[in-house]
Amino acid sequence: MKEYLKDGDAVVHEDRANPRHIVHEKALIMTVGEALHALCKVLDLSLGGCRLLLEERFPLERDCRVEVKFTLRGLPLRFCGTVRWWNREHQVGIQFAAMTERRREMLAEAILDLRAARAAMKEKGESVDRIPNCEGEDQWARNGSGSARNSL
Q1: The whole model's pTM is what?
Q2: Is 136 part of any domain?
Q3: Is 6 inside any structural domain?
Q4: CATH code, domain carrying 35
Q5: Which residues does 39 contact at the CB level (< 8 Å), separation at least 6?
Q6: CB burial class (10 A; 0-12, 13-18, 19+) of residue 111?
Q7: pLDDT of 23-82, one tens digit each?
């Protein structure tokens, strides 16, 4: 099924096994075994992977093994994965490695919480491109529609 990102909801029209959800959370990407790391932002997320926006030039190759660390709605998450693609806009597609059922359930619950927060905000007529990281927190996720700060 084809999926396209739209207005803070799950993606609905792209060839993917799992729907993607717009996130915009700060993250850290690390290469496995090489001790390289860089700041980035998770742009969207699914049970199968994520799309990142790198803040600076970072040496990655297709099939490179990486770890990604970020917080989603107050829940710290860390996943191993493989680089599947990258582009000139500093975006990187990561496919998550196999994970335990418990970890998958944690991710699914965090995604459901994100969707519920977006639905509540939408119902109130509020913008859904800015979601608080967790209840009562003053920190807001940036829209992320801007371009990368440095060129590759």
Answers
A1: 0.73
A2: no
A3: no
A4: 2.40.10.220
A5: 26, 27, 28, 54, 55, 56
A6: buried
A7: 889 999 999 988 899 999 999 999 999 999 999 888 889 999 999 999 988 889 999 999
